[in-house]
Amino acid sequence: MSPTELPPTGQQPTESQTAEPPAAAAPGAPVPARSHRSPTSVSLAWLVAWREIRAQLRSRAFIVSSVLFVVLIAAGIFAATIFGDGFGGDGEPAAPTAVAVGPGVSGIEGLKADPEAFELLAAASEAEALEFVSSGEAAAALLALPEAGPDGLPILLVAQSSAPDDVIAALTYRPTVSLIDPAPASRELVGYLGSLIFGVLFIWAAMLFGQTIAQNTVIEKQTRIVEILLAAVPARALMAGKVIGHSLLALGETALMAGTALVCLNLVGNTTILGLMTAPLLWYVLFFAIGFVFLASLFAGAAALVSRLEDVGTAIMPLTLLIMVPYVLCIALNQDATAMKVLSYIPIASTIAMPVRLMQDDAAWWEALIALALLIATAFGAIAIGARLYSNSLLQTDRKVKLLTALRSNND
Amino acid sequence: MLEVTHLTRTFGAIRAADDISFQVPRGAITGFIGGNGAGKTTTMRMILGVLHPDSGQVSLDGRPVTRELSRHFGYMPEERGLYPKMRVAEQIAYLAALHGFSQAAAANRAETLLKSLGLGQRLADPVEKLSLGNQQRAQIAAALAGDPDVLVLDEPFSGLDPMAVDTVGEILRDYVGRGVPLIFSSHQLDLVERLCDHLVIIAGGRIRTTGSRAELLHAHAGQRWEIECGPAAWIADVPGVSAVEPFNGRHRFAVTAPEGEAAAVAQEVLRQALGRGPVAAFAPWQPNLVEVFREVIVDEPQDKQENR
User: Fold this and answer.
1) What is residue A255's three-state secondary structure?
2) Which of A28, A398, B49, B159 shows the smallest number of beta carbons within 10 Å?
3) What pLDDT is stored for residue A113 in this prediction?
4) In this predicted model, which residue has the larger pLDDT, B304 or A355?
C-alpha cells in the first residue's frame, strides 16, 4: 500500500473518528452508569433452568417420545383389561365359573342368562353355600341380605381370597363383597409387577434425562458457548440451573406417566390395582425427584470431563451402571423380602425398592421417610462432587480431563 | 482504562503468555495483533477470567478485575459458540437476561441489536440455519447483549464481508465513543490499521510493542524514502545512502545520516534522478501495519515464534 492510498482515518487517534462524540468519549472517562444490577446466583440458575426447559419442550423428538409413551401406557392398561382378566393374570378359566346360590337370592338373571359362563350350584342353606366356596367347588357364594347394600343389591358375595370380577360384572348392581381369607393380590405378583413398573419408569426417565443433561453439557463445551456463559454466570449457578431444569422436566414426565396410568386404571374401573398403586406411586415420584437431582448433578459433572459428543457415552458409563444395577437387582431379587428390605434403604435403589415394599404392605411410612432421608443425605454429597467436576472441567475444552485431576484442582 | 500487568500462563512446558503487560485505553479501539499461536486468545481468556493466570493481574481503572466486575465484560470467544437450535433473538435475549436485563428489556435489546447488525429478518431463525457471516453477526450481538463495560473480542471480523465489517466497525466505534475500553484481535492487518487507534503486538507469548498507531508507524518509518524512476543502481553510490531495495515497483532507500542532514541526502538523490530522466514519484516512505508487524516480529528471535 503506498502512502497516498492510506485511508484517512485516525492519524490523530482519539479525535478524528468520533464525528459526534458523546460526552464520555474522552479517554479516562468514568464507566457509564449501569442501568441494571447483576442478578443473584439464584435468579441466574432459574434463567438457565427455564432455558433448558424451553429448549427441551421445543424438541420434536422429546414431544413425540412423550406422546408415544403416554399412548403405550394407556394402550397397555386397556389391552390388559380387555384381553386379560384385569391385571390379576389368572387367565380366563375355560370351564364356567361355579357360583353357589343360597336360598332366597334373587336378581341374578344375568348369571342365569349365560350358562356357558356360569354354573349355578343351588345350596339348601347358607352354610352349604359357604362350604362350596371353602372347598373350592365354587368361586363365590351368593347369599340373600335382608335389605339392599350400599350399591343397591340385596346380595352378599362371599369369596375365598378375591372376588371373581366376571360374576360381579354379570350382576346388575354391585353386590356387597365379603372375603373369607382376603389376600388382595398375591405378594409375589405385586413384588414382580411393582419392580417392573417402577424399575422401567425409573431407568427410562433417569437415562433419558441424564443423557440429555450430559449431551447438553458437552454441546455447550463443544460450541464454546460455555465461555460466553461463564463470563456472565458462575459455573455452579449454571450447573444448578441445568440440574433444576432437567429435574423438573423428568419429574413432569414421570408425573405425566404416573397420572396416565392412574387415570386409565380409573377409567377401566380396576379399583384393586388403583388402590394398591396410588400411595406407592406418589412415594415413587417423591423418591425419584430427589434421586434424579442426585443423578443429574453427577451426569453434568461427568459430561463436563469430555469435550466431544462422541465421548459422552464413555464419560457417563459409571452412571449408567449406577442406574442399571439397582434396576437389575430389584428385578432379580423382588421375591426375596430381606434383599428388598436392604435395597429399599440404599440410595437410588430405594427409588424402586421402597415403593414396591409399600405396595406389598411390607414397609411402614416411617421406613420410607428414613430411606428418603438417606437419599437426601447422599444427594448432597453427589451434588458437591458433580459441582466440583463441573466447574473444574468446564473450560478445558481441548482435551479430556482426568477424573482425579478435576476433583483435585480448584479452578473455579 | 483496562490494564493488564505481568500476566503469565503456562500449559505444561509451553509458556503461552509470558509477562504480558499492556493497556486498553478508553476512547480508542485497541487492536491486538500477532501470528497464530502468539498468545492472543490465552491473554484474552485471562482478561475475561475464563482462564486463570499463573501470575499477574488485570485491572479496570486501577481496581483489580474480579468475577463480579468481569461479569459485565462483553466477550467473543475465538471459537464461535451459540446454541445451534435456539432462535437467534431468544438466544441474545437470554444472554442479556443473564447480564441482568429484565425479560422484556432483554427481548427488546436483542431485537434492537440484531436489527442494527442487519439480522432483522432472521430473528426467529435457529442459529444453525444462518449463513456463516450471519452467525458471526449474531456472535457479535452475543458479546454486546449485556451492555458491556468492557469489550474483549477475539477475531470479531473473521468471516464478515466488507459491508458487515463496516457495520460492525461502526457499532464498535459507538461503544468506544461511550468510553468502553475495547480490545479485539485480528489477523487482518489492513482492517486493524483502518479501525484501531491503539495497537498491541504479541509474538511467542510476549508483548513485542504497544502504542498508538501513529507512534508505531512513525517509529518504524526510519529515514527512508521511495522514488519511482528508471534503473536505480546508482542510488547506492550517493553519499549517505545505506541501502536500496525494490519496493512495489519503486525503489526504497534508507539514509544513514544525522537527523538534520537526512533530508538533504534524499534531496540529492532526487536531484540526480531528475538529471537522469523523469521521476514519477518521490516521497518519504511510510510503512503500513503489515510492514511494521513484520519488522517487529522479525527483530525477535525466531525460535520463540512457534511457541504457543
Assistant:
1) helix
2) A398
3) 77
4) A355
Whether residues A231 and B75 touch (CB distance < 8 A) is answered with: yes
CATH topology of domain B222-285: Alpha-Beta Plaits (3.30.70)
Q: Identify which of A337, A300, A336, A299 has the alpha carbon closest to the alpha carbon of residue A320.
A: A299
pLDDT at A17: 38
Please tell me the pTM assigned to this model: 0.73
| Residue in B93, B133, B132 with CA at minimum distance from that of residue B112 | B93
Residue A152, SS3?
coil
The Cα–Cα gap between B66 and B57 comes to 10
For chains A and B, CB pairs below 8 A equal: 157
Q: What pLDDT does residue B153 have?
A: 93
Is the pLDDT at A153 greater than 60, yes or no? yes
Low-confidence ranges of chain B (pLDDT < 70): 299-308
> How large is the angle between the packed helices A187-222 and A317-333, nearest 10 degrees?
170
ipTM exceeding 0.90, yes/no? no
What pLDDT, on a 0 to 100 scale, did the predictor assign at position B299?
58
Residue B179 to residue A233, Cβ atoms within 8 A:
no
With CA atoms as reference, the chain B residue closest to A232 would be B71
A380-400: b (≥16 Cβ within 10 Å) or e: eebbebbbbbbbbbbbbbeee
For residue A135, pLDDT beyond 60: yes
Neighbours of B305 (CB within 10 A): 17
Residue B25 to residues A27, A231, B21, B29, Cα–Cα distance (Å): 6, 21, 13, 8
* pLDDT attached to residue A368: 92
**Non-local CB neighbours of A46 within 8 Å, separated by 6+ positions:** A241, A244
CB contact under 8 A, B190 and A1: yes
Which residues in chain A touch residue B178, judged by CB atoms under 8 angstroms apart? 22, 24-25, 32
pLDDT, one tens digit per residue, over A183-218 is 555 677 777 878 888 888 899 889 989 999 999 999
Cβ neighbours of residue A45 under 8 Å, at least 6 residues apart?
A: A237, A238, A240, A241, A244
According to the 3-state scheme, what is the secondary structure of A217-243?
HHHHHHCCHHHHHHHHCCHHHHHHHHH
Smallest Cα distance from B72 to chain A, Å: 7
Domain B2-218 in this protein, CATH class: alpha beta
Each domain of chain A, given as residue ranges in start order, spans 43-80+186-408, 97-179
Cβ neighbours of residue A96 closer than 8 Å, sequence gap 6 or more:
A115, A116, A117, A118, A119
Three cell numbers at A87?
A: 391385571
Q: Using the predicted structure, report yes or no on whether residue A15 has a pLDDT greater than 50.
A: no
DSSP string, B87-111: BHHHHHHHHHHHTT--HHHHHHHHH
Give residue A235's pLDDT.
87
β-strand pairing of A155-159 with A176-179: parallel
Cβ contact (<8 Å) for B26 and A27?
Answer: yes
Query: A4 or A357, which is more confident?
Result: A357
Domain range summary for chain B, segments of one domain joined by +: 2-218, 222-285
